């Protein structure tokens, strides 16, 4: 995976039933290959995932790097992450997924978000969450939202 020719998975894409996890793993693969480009591994969205599931960012990065090096991508990564995910109830996972895909920017982040949205899609004021804005920026289809939905 190369950030100069492709994008990491959408925040909305689930791995082991968890949103953001596939994207975070993709970014760790990019780090391992030296192709991360402008993306950031261990960003605030990754950190929320790590905190929720007890994932150690450095350990995941090392597991992913080893998997990339040895061409055993998913088996070793899943072996590290799955037991951590399984500690959560279905309700906890559902809450995390919902909160993650609907998270709206606040404070200084809101100004950055609005500038980025204006640059990417000025007509899409219905887009109010980071996951949707990232999808727009990466060329994914984002359904029009009505007030109160995300």
Set down the secondary structure blueprint:
Elements: E1 14-15, E2 18-19, H1 21-33, H2 44-53, H3 57-69, H4 73-85, H5 90-102, H6 107-120, H7 130-137
Antiparallel strand pairs: 1-2
Helix pairs in contact: 1-3, 3-4, 6-7
Structure description:
This protein is an all-alpha fold. The protein has two domains: 1-103, no CATH class; 104-141, no CATH class. The protein has helices at residues 21-33, 44-53, 57-69, 73-85, 90-102, 107-120, 130-137; strands at 14-15, 18-19. A two-stranded antiparallel sheet has the order 1-2. A hairpin with a 2-residue loop joins strand 1 (14-15) and strand 2 (18-19). Helix 1 (21-33) crosses helix 3 (57-69), helix 3 (57-69) runs antiparallel to helix 4 and helix 6 (107-120) runs parallel beside helix 7. The radius of gyration is 16 Å and the shape is globular. The mean pLDDT is 91.
